[in-house]
Design brief:
Shape: extended
Number of domains: 2
Helix content: over 70%
Number of strands: 0
Strand content: under 5%
Order of helices and strands: HHHHHHHHHHH
Largest sheet: none
Distance between the termini: 119 Å
Length: 333
């Protein structure tokens, strides 16, 4: 068998390599063309999205400019005029309704007035006999209509709780811990909330505070005998606590009045009031004789449960007034 010449073999290998390289170049060109076409499609899609976003932004800007021009030229003035006209119309309607209502009321002292009925006659004629209270007003609100007064006391307690929830800065609370800590770490916190050792104020408070508190207790305890009662006496005692804390500071008053004290006193007072009136209501509604005597009219221990109810109302009002003052001033009790 004849051997192929060496030169012919070299030429065959070179031609084969050239053909393989050409095929590989064609494959690479084809792949590059496909990748380039894909990149071109992505670029065109991105360009289209960008142009569309710019177009939307321009439209929004144009709408905003039109709205601003409308408000500046016509819309704003028209809206203001319509609002003013509506307010004036509502006010005029309310004035006419109120004037008509007042004009339709019976004359003062008219015997045919709706308030001159059997209810008021019962309060006046048999109030002392049935309630034992010399003060007819106290007998009415703490005996005949004692559940209304319980509702009023509950409203005071609810109002104090709302103020407490909104304004309390408690360092133990997760929500308000940062604020409370910031207030306590402030370099002027103590000097801002506490008095500056005012000798005149403190000496005056040492004289006035006991007098104010004793007078408040007197008004509460004599509510069934003379003008006064739990609401007015509690307001006086609350003013005494405010004067004390203004003169001596929160650190001093916390020795005998804290947040826990407030909770305990108000809770016990409301529960005592509710249970007392439930007993009185049950015995009266079921014709069962009450074991609580009315006492001698005019004596301090008289009028049955009215004295106890006055004391409960006085405690609730005292604590609520001080709680309002403490919350609005410092955010804690």
């Amino acid at each position: 068998m004849r051997e192929k010449p060496e030169g012919l073999l070299k030429w065959a290998h070179a031609f084969s390599a050239f053909m393989n390289a050409g095929d590989e170049r064609l494959d690479n060109d084809l792949v590059f063309s496909q990748v380039r076409d894909a990149d071109q499609d992505v670029y065109e899609a991105d360009s289209y999205e960008q142009e569309w976003a710019e177009h939307e932004q321009e439209e929004k800007q144009e709408v905003i400019e039109r709205l601003e021009r409308w408000r500046a030229l016509k819309g704003y003035r028209a809206a203001r005029r319509a609002y003013a006209l509506l307010c004036v119309t509502i006010c005029m309607i309310m004035i006419v309704v109120l004037l008509y209502t007042v004009g339709s009321l019976p004359a003062y002292g008219d015997p045919n007035h709706p308030i001159n009925n059997e209810v008021s006659a019962r309060y006046i004629e048999k109030g002392l006999q049935e309630t034992g209270a010399v003060n007819i007003v106290t007998g009415m609100i703490l005996d005949y209509r004692a559940f209304d007064t319980l509702g009023e006391s509950t409203v005071l307690f609810t109002g104090a709780m709302v103020v407490l929830f909104l304004l309390r800065a408690d360092a133990q609370s997760h929500k308000y811990s940062a604020l409370a800590q910031t207030m306590k770490d402030s370099p002027h916190s103590e000097t801002f909330y506490e008095p500056h050792r005012d000798v005149i104020l403190q000496k005056t408070a040492m004289i006035l505070v006991p007098v104010v508190l004793i007078f408040g207790v007197y008004v509460v305890l004599n509510g069934h005998l003379s003008p006064g009662g739990g609401f007015s006496g509690g307001a006086i005692m609350g003013a005494g606590l405010m004067l004390y804390v203004t003169a001596f500071g929160f650190a001093s008053i916390r020795r005998f009045f804290t947040y826990k004290t407030y909770q305990f006193v108000v809770l016990i007072a409301l529960l005592t009031y509710a249970m007392s009136k439930c007993y009185s209501f049950y015995t009266g509604a079921n014709h069962i004789e009450s074991i609580i005597p009315l006492g001698t009219p005019g004596a301090i221990l008289s009028s049955g449960l009215i004295l106890v109810l006055n004391i409960c109302v006085g405690f609730v009002v005292t604590c609520t007034m001080y709680a309002f003052y403490a919350m609005f001033r410092k955010g804690e009790m």
